[in-house]
Amino acid sequence: MRSILAFLFVASLLPACSDPAPTDPRNDPDKPNEPVALVCGLMRAACEKQVACGHPILNNTPGDVDACLEAQRCESVVDVLASPDVVVDAGAVEACEAAIEAASCGALAAQGLSIDPSCEHYLVGTRGEGESCRGGAVSDCEAGLACVFEGDTCPGTCTRAPERCTEGSCGPDAFCASNGTCEARAQVGEACDETQLDFSNLGDEPCVAGAHCDNFVCVADLDAGASCAGKSPRACGEGAACLCEDPASCASEADYACRPARAEGEPCNMAFDCADGLFCNFDDEGRCAARGGLGAACGGSFGACQHPLECVDGTCAGEEPIAAELPLLEEGQSCVESGSCPLGTACTCDNENCTEKRCLPAPGLGESCEALMLANVTPFACAEGLCDILAGYTCVLPAAAGEPCPVDGLTLACASLVCTGGKCASMEETRCEE
User: Fold this and answer.
1) How confident is the model at residue 17 (pLDDT cuts 50, 70, 90)?
2) Distance between CA atoms of residues 215 and 204, nearest Å
3) Residue 38 lies in a domain
4) Exposed (0-12), middle (13-18) or buried (19+): which is 422, by Cβ within 10 Å?
5) Is 83 part of any domain?
């Protein structure tokens, strides 16, 4: 199944860079809205394919093409293009539309807009090597370049990317950032940014040992036994996790406290319940198991492969092109062996231990989708919109900049993935000030 990280980039219209030379439609005064039209046209093509397939590609919204397109909020690309240093690559848009048209439904269900590099890289930066840059959710550097900062200084410099780091490869004083470079960990009281960390990178932390990132500031980890419901999954610190004493019976928030993380073979409810180097293996009735390296066997459970590997056709694979396809299931059909449930449904536990799972009607907007995370960690656990796997596990529609959002910090309730002061941050606000 497509990686969570790749999905988040697609859902937020945040592709990073592109190999083809970009075309900037804004230079044509007779077509001031062409960039938005290009992106919305691409999203419409994907929605048309989604409706034809009857399975999620962009979102889980059942119904017609217009309903799918409305949920995608393609107009929010205006916020990204407010920066003069990011443009739409018309050639990449055309190539992506062709790739979507040619792809099978099973491949699109597995990969979404990761089906072709052009689909992830149709928004491109324009600043060249050695030029200053401001970073942000969408890079303002050209293809193959990364915005590198020295300490807390701004601006950074567009730099040719070195060999990408991996989870745990940066040593005790740095972490592997989502741009593939090692970044220094922040001290307690200093600013931190969890958006710099790949969601699939379970072992790294943007703050120094003994601290975690809370609302963009490094704070001390909670003490053993402290109440932790609603806190960051990393709030209990190294070797600990936010757990209820009996994983099979967690009745209320008061049952959750910082306890020793589960060891290999012990029961778990999610990946962060397990000790470092382990994940929650739902193919083994929800028990902690070692994460796989390159070539290791894997299933559909989140975190089964070490970052940045992905589980492809049952094997932990690297960055080579993915050719996986998911079986297209019907409502009521078993999804224990993986597969794509039809629009409006989601893979749902069908017994107490979640050893039986079926495609059942999914919760609607505003409803909780937390229980569905036991079956499979996916944003496609809602009948409409996305399951906010970053904050609160509620079904949400990503909102545009300035619109209200329920929880400050990282959230899928915002197209920018960031909520600040109860409102969705703009893409400009994710960049540093020159």
Assistant:
1) very low
2) 17
3) yes
4) exposed
5) yes
